[in-house]
Amino acid sequence: MKNSHLIKAAERFGTPLYVYDAQKIKQQFHRLKNAFNSIERLEIRYAVKALSNLNILNILKECGSGLDTVSIEEIKLGLHAGFDPKKIIFTPNGVCFTELEEAVSLGVQINIDNLNVLEKFGNNYPEVPVCLRINPHIMAGGNTNISVGHIDSKFGISIHQLPHILRIVANTKMNINGLHMHTGSDILDIGVFLQAAEILFDTAKHFKNLSFLDFGSGFKVAYGPNDIETDIENLGEKLSKRFIDFCESYGKKLALTFEPGKFLVSEAGYFVVKTNAIKQTTSTVFAQVDSGFNHFIRPMLYGAKHEIINISQPKNHKRFYSVVGYICETDTFANNQQISEINEGDYLAFKNAGAYCFSMASNYNSRLRPAEVMLYKKDLYLIREREKFEDLIDKQLIQALPE
């Protein structure tokens, strides 16, 4: 996306502001699809939690995507956007059983990662097809908070509990139609996928009615000009060959499924802020901007490093800045990052702001959540209005308390 698009969006809609490039999302979808073009049945299910705006869902629906959902509300968003329930998988963790029952009534694919829940579900809904989320006990991911396949993870049923799974399936006569795994996010080494794939293939031999194997996602994207990313093309070549060989030995052509979130939308997103002030201390030059971790929490939560550019003065000589927000806590977006010299009023843009950014925004410090804009065929479209003060108090009830 050009700086001129971002400046135009900021001037038209104000800051802070999220801006998404629809064309980049489409490019990433087709890149993944083309990497596995030898697979006859490839299913891509977009992870709604990454960015759930209905307009983004519509773009991906046009591409042919399904959805990966983790809450009943995400399912309803998908259905509201017009997705076929059969193209939606529901992979909750620790939810009330009534939420699973509601998902059944909505007709989506159920994915279960708890032995107790599996047995209860099998006793109540033996005829409903179920996918099993397996924990392969493989540590992967760019941060411990996003590594979900290790032995201490709350996600998935341990691969070592396979005998328990088989006993439950036999006793309830439930229909297992898929196997699922997800080892973590920001995975660089494709060997992790291939290693976990072998575990999934070995597990699949115990189930005769499978229709798909779901390899999750966690593909790493580049966060800067010198950063590296998951080699999707290399993974596509190696995993496709192994998957085809497995299907031949299994005696049935299964669907190969992925659930990308960050891979599809991260690089399409930009977060635009305005510089309120430059503050120099004895050791640091701070660029203070009109936002905080209430709008963009990844650096504080994950230690994520986002490239920040001065889109107002991109050709200024570079200086080192710590970019900080206005929240009344330590609120740092970047420490000592080299950025073109910043002056009060300059617009800054955070790259890779499409995934897990707006979706994790809050009203902390009673701040209003920003607007969202989409660039589509060179035009800018407002896809979420900026919150107003009335939105903060709309659901609050003032009670007349007795004396």
TrEMBL record:
Q: Where does substrate bind?
A: R298, Y302, E329, Y356
Tell me where in this chain the Orn/DAP/Arg decarboxylase 2 C-terminal domain is found. 18-354
Catalysed reaction(s) here are: meso-2,6-diaminopimelate + H(+) = L-lysine + CO2
Which cofactors, if any, are listed as required?
Answer: pyridoxal 5'-phosphate
Q: Which CDD domains match?
A: PLPDE_III_DapDC
Domain Orn/DAP/Arg decarboxylase 2 N-terminal span(s) in chain numbering: 23-266
Query: So, what pathway does this thing act in?
Result: Amino-acid biosynthesis; L-lysine biosynthesis via DAP pathway; L-lysine from DL-2,6-diaminopimelate: step 1/1
**What are the protein's UniProt keywords?**
Amino-acid biosynthesis, Decarboxylase, Lyase, Lysine biosynthesis, Pyridoxal phosphate
Question: InterPro entries of this UniProt entry?
Answer: Ala_racemase/Decarboxylase_C, DAP_deCOOHase_LysA, De-COase2_C, De-COase2_N, De-COase2_pyr-phos_BS, Orn/DAP/Arg_de-COase, PLP-binding_barrel
Positions of modified residues (N6-(pyridoxal phosphate)lysine)? K49
Q: Which GO terms describe its molecular function?
A: diaminopimelate decarboxylase activity
Instruction: Please indicate if the UniProt record lists Lyase as a keyword.
Output: yes
Top EC class per UniProt?
Answer: lyase
Annotated binding of pyridoxal 5'-phosphate, by residue: G218, Y356
> EC annotation?
4.1.1.20
Q: Which Gene3D superfamilies match?
A: Alanine racemase (3.20.20.10), Lyase, Ornithine Decarboxylase, Chain A, domain 1 (2.40.37.10)
Primary role: Specifically catalyzes the decarboxylation of meso-diaminopimelate (meso-DAP) to L-lysine.
Q: Which NCBIfam families did the record assign?
A: lysA
Q: Which family does it belong to?
A: Belongs to the Orn/Lys/Arg decarboxylase class-II family. LysA subfamily.
Q: How does it assemble?
A: Homodimer.
Name-wise, this protein is: Diaminopimelate decarboxylase
